[in-house]
Amino acid sequence: MSVKNKVLLMKHPSFTNSELCQILSKIFPDSNFSIKNDHIILENIKLTNKYYEMLIDLYISTIDDFGQWINDFTNDEYIDVYSTLAGVVLFIKSDNYDNKNVHNNNNIKETLKKYISFVEKLDQFDESKFYGIYDTNHNSVFTEGNGELIYKIESLTEHNELKNLFDIYDWTSEEKNKQYYTLKDKKNDISTLNDPKDINLINVIEKLDVIKSRYSLIKDSQEAEAFAKEMSENIANLLLDDSGNDISQ
Fold first, then answer.
1. What is the total count of domains within the chain?
2. pTM of the model
3. Are residues 132 and 55 both part of a single domain?
4. What is the tens place of the pLDDT at every residue in 78-89?
């Protein structure tokens, strides 16, 4: 079993390094960012919130030819890399609805199609990853109502939305991840996560908070209803031990 604490950040060439550094600095204030190359690995970046801290690695790639890059990356030789990825986020800069820059919009649209195809391939290998498309343009032609996006891909325009995507991911789903994860108790002290059963109620409170944040981002009513049902079952399971006994008392 691999450590699954890496996030791939795929960047369209129109999205500058300085723009990405500004976003990452807001999400990870404990780290200093300087991106000077098209491909870079940033290790041991501290993700922190009021519930926990997690050390993650960021793989950042500026990609000119998405089709070729995706074809190369989805070869079997990269299968070990797939297992280490917790999520994949694409960064783009699209034009406004009233902008007639057809060439740029078509280029972005093709990039999105290739990204979605990439996500579908990864999802066949591992369904527990998170995905997002970050567009700094609030009036993007792609931000709202893009029916092509599969339901697992979050549409993002603000750094806090991206931060939420990181926060709500279940980093402890992989056993080896726990060595990079620390849980904050009610007094904001840090305690290493050893046995989840010992801190079950704290886990429940944490899950409820992040579920609420995730639920607020869902716009489709049917998807929201399905998500609520799935999450209620997950919360119920958190309150039961392996024998089906209630351990919340």
1. 2
2. 0.71
3. yes
4. 778 888 999 999
